Amino acid sequence: MSKSLERKIIDICVFLHTELSSMQCDLDDSILDLNEVLRLEVNQALELITENIKDLLKIKRNFMMIDEYKNYKAHEQYQKALQKLEGEVRHHIKIEQQMKLHIDSTQAKLEELEKNKEDLHVNNILDALKKENFRLTEKVKNLEKQADNNDDKIRYIKELNMLKGIAQKDSQKNSELEKTNKKLEMEVSYLQRKLDILNREHTNEKIGYKENKQDTHGKKIHYEEVQDENRAPPQLTERCRNMSKGELKKSGSKSPISGRVDLKRTESQFLSSTRGVKKSSGIPDKPRKHSHAGTNYNKVN
């Protein structure tokens, strides 16, 4: 082997030793110092170079393993973050469903309270009429007792007859109000059945829309036609209003007690239920088709 080649081998060995020594803070006792490296023979220098190359390859493999581990950790953290976000989304969906159920329950309670308020108002009017009738009856009895001991019997008889007529008219008003209340209850039941039918049709329309989006336009037109057909006709509303007014005016006489009881006409259950149908269906007011009330009632039955 030539001297120049041997010298290059020694130089390579010295370079590797110097670089490796500079990278290590604490030198191991087994590592040769620079003077010992310079005194090595060529074969020993080649062996030292080979060992250094092996150590470098081993270090390279360790670095590659560390990089793979870092990539694995990053992927694992990404999966955990994704699972956490999916859990939050499911939680929000659950809360949304609970809120929808709560809103539906509150709406049902509100409608029930409005209905009870209407019934309570009618019952208060009936109670007031019954109390007035009872008071007049007691007054008639007292007048009958006084008429026996009074010289002016004719005047008391006239007053007695007038009070009897007033009591009879009040009794008729009481029975007429009870009949009106029963009719309104029948109308509420009729509209409730119509509302149930509309809700079922609306639900079927929603399901059909999800299954086939291409038929959305046709189903919407069909739903609006059904809504227009089942909408309460204005003739029935006007007839119910006129009937309520006429029954309160049938007496024809302005009795002394006619102004004592305030018979305020409240909004009927028919009109409030009609607005409830519009509000639940979410369809704006449109020109109604003229149809007879009896026809719609037979369709529902």
From TrEMBL:
Region (Disordered) residue spans: 206-301
Comp. bias intervals (Basic and acidic residues): 206-231, 238-250
Coiled coil recorded as keyword: yes
Domain of life: Eukaryota
Keyword annotations from UniProtKB, A to Z: Coiled coil
Chain coiled-coil ranges: 96-201
Listed name of the protein: Uncharacterized protein
Naturally occurring in which organism (per UniProt): Stentor coeruleus
